[in-house]
Amino acid sequence: MIEFKNVSKWYGSFQVLNDCSISINAGQVVVVCGPSGSGKSTLIKTANALEPFQKGEILIDGVSVGARKTNLPQLRARIGMVFQHFELFPHLSVMRNLELAQVKVLGRTADEANQRGRSLLERVGLSAHMDKFPGQLSGGQQQRVAIARALAMDPIAMLFDEPTSALDPEMVNEVLDVMVDLAKEGMTMMVVTHEMGFARKVADRVIFMDEGAIVEDCSKDEFFERPEELSDRAKLFLSKIL
Ligand code: ADP
Ligand code: MG
């Protein structure tokens, strides 16, 4: 479903991604971790064509992200993206946030968009808040709205970039719970996170990045149960966060 083939990217002379290859099958959950500055955000943004890359290829459900003929708005509409900062439209109600792209991009009627919005708000436990503005919600609630908004587009895969790292600790689990449910329902997910509890629960694989390169790509069991076999850089990182 998501395939990176030998992807490299430079900012000027600085190489931010170094020959990255990853293959994520439909229904798989892949957690990406690694030190700050190792290229995780850049990697995940290239999958959505939010960042260009200079070498290699990325295929989303067989469609080449870098190819000139690829319709990028159409491709982006099919991949849900949730960032660290919630990035809801502050001047629109929660429900309008959910409806807007369904109508503008997918061409749904106002009624259809509203129905879909309602069912997703129910699913993330926020039905009571549909008429509020984002600023009236807690961080955890806003992030759940952001996830619902992404799901309203019926994405074929979801990308998450540290979705809980800007939240107060007591709000982390309400967001992770929604993500765990999504994973269990079979959504294809690429998740940058240091929440290793989440990784243990639902990850099929864990990828460890350092200095733009993929240093480890292994099963959850290999990563957590046999840490002695990991690279020194991965061991050091794990020792700091676990
Ligand atoms: P991570 O998400 O793992 O913390 P990033 O992908 O954000 O890492 O950044 C990787 C590296 O690329 C960092 O060294 C960062 O300073 C650099 N970088 C990120 N964005 C830019 C940019 N627009 N121009 C130049 N360097 C950048
Ligand atoms: Mg980042």
Give the tags.
6-stranded mixed sheet; single chain; 242 residues; 38% helix; binds magnesium ion; binds adenosine-5'-diphosphate; 9 helices; 4-stranded antiparallel sheet; alpha/beta; globular; 10 strands
Distinct small molecules: adenosine-5'-diphosphate, magnesium ion
Q: How far apart, in Å, are the first and last alpha carbons?
A: 30 Å
Beta strands, count: 10
What percentage of amino acids are in beta strands?
A: 15-25%
Helix content: 25-40%
- Shape summary: globular
SSE order: EEEHEEHEHHHEHEHEEHH
Structural class category: alpha/beta
As laid out across the biggest beta sheet, the strand order is 6-7-8-3-9-10
Biggest pleated-sheet summary: 6 strands, mixed
Mean pLDDT: 95
Radius of gyration: 18 Å
Question: What is the number of helices?
Answer: 9
Low-pLDDT residue intervals, each spanning 5 or more residues: none
Structure characterization notes:
The chain has 242 residues and is an alpha/beta fold. 38% of the residues lie in helices and 25% in strands. Strands 6-7-8-3-9-10 form a six-stranded mixed beta sheet, with helices on both faces. The chain binds adenosine-5'-diphosphate and magnesium ion. The site of adenosine-5'-diphosphate has 10 residues, from helix 1.
